Amino acid sequence: MGERLGCIDAGSEYCPCHLAETNDCLICSQLQGKSFCDCNWSGVCIYQNFHWCGDKKNDMRTVAEGRIMERKKVHEEILLLKLGVTKTLARQLKQPGSYVFLRDPEKPYFFNVPMSIMDANENTGEIHIAVQIVGPKTKALMACKDKILIKGPYWNGVLGIKKLKTTKGENVLLAARGIALAPSVLAIKYLLKNHNKITFIMDPGKLGMVFVHDYIKNLNLETIELNFKEEKGLKDFRNILKKGNYSLVYSAGSDRFHKRVENAIEDMDEDIKFAITNNTHMCCGEGVCGSCSYKTKGGTTVKMCKCQLEPKELLEGRNVNV
Ligand SMILES: Cc1cc2nc3c(=O)[nH]c(=O)nc-3n(C[C@H](O)[C@H](O)[C@H](O)COP(=O)(O)OP(=O)(O)OC[C@H]3O[C@@H](n4cnc5c(N)ncnc54)[C@H](O)[C@@H]3O)c2cc1C
Fold first, then answer.
1. CATH assignment of 62-154?
2. Is 184 within 8 Å of 232 (Cβ atoms)?
3. b vs e for 57-92, b when ≥16 Cβ sit within 10 Å of the residue's Cβ?
4. Nearest-CA neighbor of 20 among 286, 296, 321?
5. CA 184 to centroid of ligand 1, rounded, Å
6. Do domains 62-154 and 158-279 have the same CATH topology?
7. Residue 282 CB less than 6 A away from ligand 1
8. pLDDT band at residue 273, thresholds of 50, 70 and 90?
9. What is the average pLDDT score of the chain?
10. Atom 28 in ligand 1: residue holding the nearest Cα
């Protein structure tokens, strides 16, 4: 039996994908070239869908021209963008873990850069994104004045998403640092809809700025600011974790940040669910280009733009130290 892997696109309108055509489907054993059926997918049969599509992949994501409705430079390194998109795309991007590829229309396709959705409004057809300007692709976005290219929707921005989505009426702790405060907003909104009680720990990080206040000010949650890089901050975090009776912890930051949070959870010796933001380098988002390749402990090479792996396995495999 092959490894049981999860695919974020399985059963969506973008499934079956390119990987089915090349016998590299993450889920379906027949679309991995085997002659028998052996999958753990409980949705509509991917193999059957593939045949219905004429032994071809389903529709591909398209590149749309988005309208820049607002651009605010709130920090030397942070640009907040409000983009006008179709209501359908805005609705598809309301899920926690949603992201798109952005690009300056004047630049070639390899300037596509993955960016998390901070907020989305399907009634007005708006999405909000916070960009940290770090290198060539993000610097190129600075040149966009009225228009920007948007490819999406993509959803694998959070690993452990199923745990997040099935948590209802519980106490949840979210910890986010720096630019990763952005994807926390959608996670918070989803968790609140499911009647969870939320503590949101915000670490301004190297940027020294919490830029999400406007997005969470009307939400019912407890917020705490602290710095995980300081001994006191980490100690405070551990105390909050101990006292809160949390059933899920969501970590948004670098892999080292995730590891710090994971270590604190492990020291608790309690069964706490764990979800993290996906920090893999991504370029095509379709499981093809290879920039997000990762070798699982079972020896399978998977593409992390689509594959849902256990946060613990990924951090272990990447040998992340704090
Ligand atoms: C799912 C996802 C969501 C993201 N959301 C946001 C966001 O909301 N806001 C934001 O500012 N940034 C986000 N990022 C990170 C952003 O994509 C990178 O900072 C960007 O790709 C850097 O490109 P660059 O050419 O400007 O800089 P580079 O000089 O190429 O790299 C600068 C830094 O970004 C990392 N990086 C480089 N290429 C990638 C890549 N293709 N994917 C991921 N990391 C990369 C590098 O390790 C390095 O630390 C996200 C990344 C992913 C995978």
1. 2.40.30.10
2. no
3. bbeebebeebeebebeeeeebbbbbbbbbeeebbbb
4. 286
5. 16
6. no
7. yes
8. very high
9. 95
10. 135
Place of tokens 């179709």: 86
Would the CB of 283 count as within 6 Å of ligand 1? yes
What are the residue ranges spanned by the domains of the chain? Answer: 62-154, 158-279
Mean pLDDT score, 184-205: 98
In ligand 1, which atom is closest to the CA atom of 78? 11
CA-CA distances (angstroms) from residue 31 to 37, 54, 173, 306?
9, 14, 39, 16
* Type of residue found at 75: H
257/182 Cα distance (integer angstroms): 15
The residue with tokens 């995730």 is: 258
Specify the CATH class of 158-279 in words: alpha beta
pLDDT tens, 38-59? 888 889 999 999 999 899 999 8
Q: What is the pTM of this model?
A: 0.95
